[in-house]
Amino acid sequence: MAKLQDRSPASGADSEDSGDGLPCCPPLTAPDLSGADARTMATMFKALGEPIRVLLFSRVASHPDGEVCVCDLGDLGVGQSTVSHHLKKLRDAGLVVSERRGTWVFYRVAPGVLARMGAITG
């Protein structure tokens, strides 16, 4: 059985080749993101740069019905106009989609968003 080598930076191992012809660290994902995908993902993560948006996105994504009426998002400690502003930012970033039904607007995670986010993390 082959002995495992310490390939941490402190061990002095070359980050590209460990000396045995094997790369130090396997790639985290394959294939690499395209430039267009990287820009799209950056826009999504930038939109999630505000804690209130992370909370809103989480509430929409975790709702048991797969969608949530804006009236059911609960108390977030901010006014309704602020909630609407942040939901618009999430919508503009492609994270959520909305549908008006009478006087209410329902939000759900945009198709494929969670899979795309998960794909870049391995």
From TrEMBL:
Gene3D superfamilies reported for this sequence: Winged helix-like DNA-binding domain superfamily/Winged helix DNA-binding domain (1.10.10.10)
Keywords: DNA-binding, Transcription, Transcription regulation
Location of the region described as Disordered in the Swiss-Prot/TrEMBL record: 1-26
Entry protein name: Helix-turn-helix transcriptional regulator
SUPFAM superfamilies, A to Z: Winged helix' DNA-binding domain
CDD domains in the record: HTH_ARSR
PANTHER family: ARSENICAL RESISTANCE OPERON REPRESSOR, TRANSCRIPTIONAL REGULATOR, ARSR FAMILY
Residues of the HTH arsR-type domain: 33-122
GO molecular function term, any single one: DNA-binding transcription factor activity
Domain of life, source organism: Bacteria
InterPro entries, sorted: ArsR-like_HTH, HTH_ArsR_DNA-bd_dom, HTH_MetalResp_TranReg, WH-like_DNA-bd_sf, WH_DNA-bd_sf
Organism: Streptomyces boncukensis
